[in-house]
Design a protein that fits this description.
The structure is a single chain. The chain is globular. Helix 2 packs across helix 7. With 305 residues, it is mostly helical. The strands form 2 sheets. A two-stranded antiparallel sheet has the order 1-4. Helix content is 72%, strand content 4%.
C-alpha cells in the first residue's frame, strides 16, 4: 500500500509524457466526437430556456463522468490504464504549444495572413483585420487562458477526483467553449454550461494564476492580479490572464472584435506591448508550471507515504 500515495502523481506523469511524445490524436479524438454529439443534443433540446440547457449539460457531462466511474470499478487493478488514457486525452499542452508555434513562425516569416489564420484556430474573436501586435496579443492571451483550461485545470481535477473528475471538467469546459456566449442564441441555453465551467474552474484558475506568479515576475503578477482581475468579465480568466501578463511583464487586454462587434475589454498586465518572442515565453511559463505541479504532487505523495 506504500505506493498508493504516489499512484495519482505517477499516472499524471505518464499522461504528461504521452502528451509530449504523441501530441493530440490526429484522428478519432474523443473531444471531436463529443462536440458532434453536443451539436445533436443541442438540435434536439434547444430553446431559449435555462432548464433545457441544464438538461443538455447534465446528459453530456454527467453521463460520461458516470461511465468513467463505472469503468474504473469494473477494471479493478487495470483501472490505472483508463486514468492515464483519459488524462492524456484531456491535457492539451502539446497541442497548445503547436498552435502557438504556428503563429510565432508565421510572424517571424512576415506572413501576416498565415499568422491571422493560425491565431484564428486558437481564439473565438475575429482575426481578419488584426495587425502583428494584435495577433501576438491574441496568441498570448490564448496560451495563458488555455494553460488553465487545457492543462492545469485537467491536472487539478485528476489529482482530486481521478478519471471521473477530469472527464467532467474537460467536457464542461468544452461545452462552455461551444455554448457559453451571451449571444441571442446562447444567453439562456448556454447559461448552465457557463456556470458549471465557472464553478469547476474557480480553484484551478487561482492555482494557475499563482503558478504564473511563482515562475515569472512575481511582484508584477501579484500586483496585476490584485488590481485588474476583478475588472475582467470572466471570474476565472481574469486572475489567470492578469497574473500571466504581469508574470511576463507585457500588456494584454484592450478592445477586440467578437462576432462582428467591437468589445471594450479592460487592460491587463504592465510593461511593453507583446512581441512575437513573448509567445514562446508564455508557452515556457506553462511548461515549467506543469513540471512544478508534478514535483509538488510527488512531494505530497511522499508526505503521505
Amino acid at each position: 500500500m506504500a505506493a498508493a500515495p504516489f499512484a495519482a502523481p505517477l499516472m499524471a506523469l505518464l499522461a504528461v509524457l504521452l502528451d509530449r511524445l504523441l501530441g493530440e490524436p490526429l484522428r478519432w479524438h474523443p473531444l471531436v466526437g463529443f462536440g458532434r454529439l453536443a451539436q445533436r443534443i443541442e438540435a434536439s433540446l434547444y430553446g431559449a430556456s435555462r432548464l433545457r440547457g441544464a438538461i443538455a449539460v447534465a446528459l453530456l457531462v454527467g453521463g460520461p463522468a458516470l461511465a468513467a466511474f463505472l469503468a474504473q470499478r469494473s477494471l479493478g487493478s487495470w483501472a490505472w490504464l483508463l486514468d492515464v488514457a483519459l488524462l492524456y486525452l484531456a491535457i492539451g499542452a502539446t497541442s497548445l504549444d503547436q498552435h502557438a508555434a504556428q503563429v510565432r513562425r508565421a510572424l517571424d516569416a512576415g506572413d501576416l495572413d498565415a499568422a491571422r489564420r493560425s491565431v484564428g484556430r486558437m481564439v473565438s474573436r475575429d482575426t481578419a483585420d488584426m495587425d502583428e501586435a494584435a495577433v501576438a496579443r491574441a496568441a498570448l492571451e490564448s496560451v495563458l487562458e488555455n494553460g488553465c483550461d487545457a492543462v492545469f485545470g485537467a491536472l487539478s481535477w485528476f489529482l482530486v477526483a481521478g478519471a471521473p473528475g477530469v472527464v467532467a471538467y474537460r467536457l464542461a469546459n468544452t461545452l462552455d467553449a461551444m455554448w457559453g456566449y451571451k449571444t441571442d442564441r446562447y444567453r439562456y441555453f448556454g447559461w448552465a454550461a457557463a456556470r458549471l465551467d465557472d464553478l469547476l474552474n474557480w480553484i484551478p484558475a487561482r492555482l494557475t494564476a499563482l503558478t504564473y506568479a511563482l515562475l515569472g515576475n512575481a511582484r508584477a503578477a501579484w500586483r496585476c492580479w490584485r488590481s485588474q482581475a476583478a475588472s475582467w468579465e470572466s471570474p476565472n480568466a481574469g486572475p489567470v490572464m492578469a497574473a500571466g501578463a504581469g508574470a511576463l511583464t507585457v500588456q494584454l487586454g484592450g478592445p477586440a472584435i467578437y462576432h462582428g462587434q467591437w468589445e471594450s475589454r479592460p487592460p491587463l498586465g504592465e510593461g511593453r506591448p507583446p512581441q512575437t518572442a513573448d509567445i514562446a515565453r508564455a508557452m515556457a511559463l506553462v511548461q515549467r508550471g506543469v513540471w512544478l505541479w508534478l514535483a509538488l504532487a510527488f512531494m505530497g505523495g511522499w508526505a503521505l507515504a
